[in-house]
UniProtKB/TrEMBL annotation, chain A:
<feature type="region of interest" description="Disordered">
    <location>
        <begin position="444"/>
        <end position="472"/>
    </location>
</feature>
<keyword id="KW-0813">Transport</keyword>
<feature type="transmembrane region" description="Helical">
    <location>
        <begin position="20"/>
        <end position="41"/>
    </location>
</feature>
<keyword id="KW-0349">Heme</keyword>
<feature type="transmembrane region" description="Helical">
    <location>
        <begin position="53"/>
        <end position="71"/>
    </location>
</feature>
<feature type="transmembrane region" description="Helical">
    <location>
        <begin position="187"/>
        <end position="207"/>
    </location>
</feature>
<dbReference type="GO" id="GO:0046872">
    <property type="term" value="F:metal ion binding"/>
</dbReference>
<dbReference type="GO" id="GO:0019646">
    <property type="term" value="P:aerobic electron transport chain"/>
</dbReference>
<dbReference type="InterPro" id="IPR002585">
    <property type="entry name" value="Cyt-d_ubiquinol_oxidase_su_1"/>
</dbReference>
From TrEMBL, chain B:
<dbReference type="GO" id="GO:0016682">
    <property type="term" value="F:oxidoreductase activity, acting on diphenols and related substances as donors, oxygen as acceptor"/>
</dbReference>
<feature type="transmembrane region" description="Helical">
    <location>
        <begin position="119"/>
        <end position="138"/>
    </location>
</feature>
<feature type="transmembrane region" description="Helical">
    <location>
        <begin position="6"/>
        <end position="36"/>
    </location>
</feature>
<feature type="transmembrane region" description="Helical">
    <location>
        <begin position="194"/>
        <end position="216"/>
    </location>
</feature>
<keyword id="KW-0349">Heme</keyword>
<feature type="transmembrane region" description="Helical">
    <location>
        <begin position="82"/>
        <end position="99"/>
    </location>
</feature>
<feature type="transmembrane region" description="Helical">
    <location>
        <begin position="296"/>
        <end position="319"/>
    </location>
</feature>
<feature type="transmembrane region" description="Helical">
    <location>
        <begin position="247"/>
        <end position="269"/>
    </location>
</feature>
<keyword id="KW-0472">Membrane</keyword>
Length: 472, 335
């Protein structure tokens, strides 16, 4: 393996791993904030217990999202220094703004939320968790703007002296057409992730009829959010498909393993081919659907891999512009399949809960619990699809991945890095999953535990000796 | 002022804030096994920084990202050149961050003692490596004409760089001990003051030596002032600590850190990463982004940095009370 391969493996491993936690952080922070708001507005203790329960799971997850995020920022400099030199003018700015606008807000107000239960007035304390959520959204916006620029570079020129990309229009980078579809797609997926997670854990407890007063409202909220969000995922995904077909025709062709240009093009549900994907052995197809997905009309032309390859060779010079087709093809199917399954499960779940019912069949709950894995599978497949589908480019049409790697870093240093990070991530995943299961199963705190002990009134002597509401 | 100079100052400011803030929470982490005699005491020690360590760490993330945006060449050369020391920092920070959050999540003495070790090493390794990295930045490293680092790991571990590492470790231990004396009550407070007295001696020895060498080798007239000011801060902190003036002692250690970092950046300017070869030296001019990027970044930094400082300052106000063993809630069984 050369350093490009090692650096790509490290990027893939650390990014997919980081993204197990990020969407859950975004989705769950909103749901916790909603539950705490509901508690403040209704005064019902069940909502406070729910807030504390989901809040704890949120924090276990959040810790992992933060610590794995640091690696994301610094591996650009460590493993991809030529990329960093080439795009620093453009790519560094959203990263720095993300830190300044979003990370400070998230980390500071999360600290205030965790430790501020008895220190802050109730409304101010509620404001803290909402600010954490807004911070996660801002953070996602700037990071996705940076990624969208790699998918579809805009607002720049190449400086002839240095050969580097120079920013000419920052607003264009922030309102990149790719970004305007990628952001809502990723955010709706994140809300669906939070919702499905909450629904799965609630289903586990409701199957045992435990703490129904906490978990039935949780489940209903979670399913409603998941249903709306996963329909949103489908709509934004469809819009994204059309933008992608226009900007990266190779990615769409590879997503369908479409070798020859078709008009109208049929959608492949399932195909078995040779290992390199060049020849189809068996396939199941729906006529005209791909034309609609890619172009919005039923008889639109969709370019095949061979034609795109010829066109890109003409444009960018000799070379292989095809990504690994089977990887792209299958990840696309897994992503879409997981999204559709989430929409179905959440809508069916809402149906079983109508008019205050709780279903009795254990299968309903088993499906609910199993569905908890769907968003994680779908999110990972989505990123593998979109990042590997861009290959051989790191910045589409401008900079190749092979020219992006650090020229001065030895393969052995990189191997030490990828091996130690992967090992640590593996150990932490076991620990994190163990804690999640333990606290998910433990259930919410009782009514007595969440209500504050009687105080002698503010400012009394006993106030300073009272123990903290929360301590590590 | 030229925007490249302005950005050199902004980045120096971000790093200075980072070392001022995370300096004391690294120190608290390194003192955990020394000052926490039982589990309740260790929890007191950890909870002095509980609400703020994460916000402190973001100063590093922003300093790194701002370097990427304003000086991409510096970012690329620094992070690929100092590869293994940075990897050590990243691994340590990952373990440390998780440790704070997960330590109390199981009622199991072995589990907690493992995470306590993680907090200790996760604080010591970065505290040491930052000193090594900054000493190398001032001293310069071998760079070729393409600004690529062409040295080996051995080049980064010179006696001067190791002394730099020792300086940050002792300085942060002192800063942390003074912070703990300021934030706790009872036995921990008394012991933290004693430790601070010892740490002050070590910090004066290591830091004094390091700053003197820096001054003689790389300094300029103005850095005599900042280096002397850093030394005065340390001595004032030691004196205030002896008299039990904990707030003033913290001001002293804080001033020492700020002035020591200022000494390094002032010695460096207008270089950002000098080369020990005839080629490849990076300066604020040849490492910078375009004027347009710097202009946008200047607006963003000018508007948002003060806001961040205000709400982070407010956090310290909210959690201003001292903590003692009586404040730690008794653990309830989980299931």
């Amino acid at each position: 393996m050369d350093t490009v391969d090692i650096a790509r493996w490290q990027f893939g491993i650390t990014t997919v791993y980081h993204f197990l936690f990020v969407p859950l952080t975004i989705g769950l922070s909103a749901l916790v904030a909603v539950l705490q708001t509901a508690w403040l507005r209704t005064g019902r203790t069940a909502y406070l217990r729910a807030t504390k329960f989901w809040g704890k799971l949120f924090l276990i997850n959040f810790a992992m999202g933060i610590v794995t995020g640091i690696v994301q920022e610094f591996q650009f400099g460590m493993n991809w220094s030529d990329y960093s030199r080439f795009v620093g003018d453009i790519f560094g700015a959203p990263l720095a703004i993300e830190g300044l606008l979003a990370f400070f807000v998230e980390s500071t107000f999360l600290g205030l939320w965790i430790f501020g239960w008895d220190r802050l007035p109730k409304r101010l304390h509620l404001g803290c968790i909402w600010l954490v959520h807004i911070g996660t959204l801002l953070s996602a916006y700037f990071i996705l703007a940076a990624n969208s620029w790699m998918q579809h570079p805009v607002g720049y020129r190449i400086d002839h002296g240095s050969g580097r990309a120079v920013l000419t229009d920052f607003w264009a980078v922030l309102t990149n057409s790719t970004q305007l579809v990628a952001f809502p797609h990723t955010m709706t997926a994140a809300f669906a992730t939070g919702g499905m997670f909450m629904a799965g854990v609630s289903a586990w407890h409701l199957a045992r009829r435990r703490n129904v007063e906490v978990f039935r409202p949780s489940l209903k909220l979670a399913l409603a959010v998941t249903a709306i969000a996963s329909i949103g995922v489908a709509i934004t995904g469809d819009l994204q498909g059309k933008v992608m077909t226009e900007q990266q025709p190779m990615k769409m062709a590879a997503a369908e393993a479409l070798y020859e240009t078709e008009r109208p093009a049929s959608f492949s549900i399932f195909t078995v081919g040779t290992l390199n994907g060049e020849e189809e052995v068996f396939g199941l197809k729906v006529p005209r659907v791909l034309s609609f997905l890619a172009t919005g009309t039923l008889d639109g032309e969709v370019k095949g891999i061979n034609d795109v390859q010829a066109a890109e060779q003409e444009r960018y010079g000799a070379g292989d512009y095809r990504p690994m087709t089977p990887v792209i093809y299958w990840n696309f199917r897994v992503m879409v399949g997981a999204g559709l399954a989430m929409a179905l499960v959440s809508l069916a779940g809402l149906w079983t809960l109508r008019r205050g019912r709780l279903p009795s069949s254990p299968w309903v709950y088993r499906i609910g619990v199993l569905s908890l894995t769907l968003p994680f599978i779908g999110n990972s497949a989505g990123w593998i699809f979109t990042e590997m589908g861009r290959q051989p480019w790191s910045v589409f049409g401008v900079l190749k991945t092979s020219s992006s790697v650090s020229p001065g870093v030895s393969a052995s240093s990189m191997l030490i890095s990828v091996a130690s990070l992967t090992a640590l991530y593996g150990v932490l995943l076991v620990i994190e999953t163990g804690l999640m299961l333990k606290y998910a199963k433990a259930g919410p705190p009782s009514e007595d535990e969440v209500l504050p002990p009687p105080s002698d009134g503010p400012g009394s002597d006993s106030d300073s000796e009272r123990s903290l509401a929360f301590a590590y | 002022m030229e925007l490249t100079t302005a950005w050199f100052i902004i980045i120096a400011f971000l790093w200075t804030s980072y070392f001022f803030l995370e300096g004391f929470d690294f120190g608290v982490g390194m003192l955990l096994p020394v000052l926490g005699r039982d589990d309740v005491e260790r929890r007191v020690v950890i909870n002095t920084i509980g609400p703020v360590w994460d916000g402190n760490e973001v100063w590093f993330i922003v300093a790194g990202a701002a370097t990427f945006a304003a000086f991409p060449e510096w970012y690329a050369t620094l992070f690929s050149g100092f590869y293994l020391p940075l990897l050590a920092i990243l691994l340590a920070l990952i373990i440390r961050g998780v440790a704070f959050e997960y330590r109390g999540k199981r009622d199991d003495a072995r589990w907690r003692s493992r995470w306590d070790k993680a907090i200790f090493w996760g604080s010591l390794v970065p505290a040491f490596m930052w000193g090594v990295a900054f000493a190398n930045m001032v001293r310069g490293v071998p760079l070729d004409a393409d600004h690529e680092f062409v040295g080996s790991l051995g080049d980064l571990l010179s006696p001067y760089a190791l002394l730099g590492g020792l300086t940050t470790v002792t300085l942060f231990i002192l800063h942390g001990a003074v912070f703990l004396a300021l934030k706790t009550s009872g036995g921990i407070r008394a012991r933290a003051r004693r430790i601070a007295g010892l740490a002050a001696v070590a910090a004066v020895a290591a830091g004094g030596g390091f700053l003197l060498i820096t001054q003689l080798q790389y300094g300029r007239p103005v850095t005599w002032l900042t280096a002397a000011g850093a030394a005065a801060g340390l001595l004032a902190a030691a004196a205030a600590n002896r008299r039990g003036r904990e707030g003033w002692a913290f001001v002293g250690t804080g001033a020492a850190i700020v002035l020591a970092v200022a000494t390094l950046f002032l010695s460096l300017f207008p270089d950002v990463l000098p080369s020990t070869l005839a080629t490849g030296g990076l300066t604020t001019e040849n490492a910078a982004s375009s004027g347009y990027t710097l202009k946008i970044m200047t607006w963003v930094a000018a508007v948002f940095t003060p806001i961040v400082m205000i709400y982070q300052g407010w956090t310290y106000w909210v959690f201003r009370k001292r903590i003692g063993t009586s404040h730690i809630p008794v653990k309830k069984p989980v299931a």
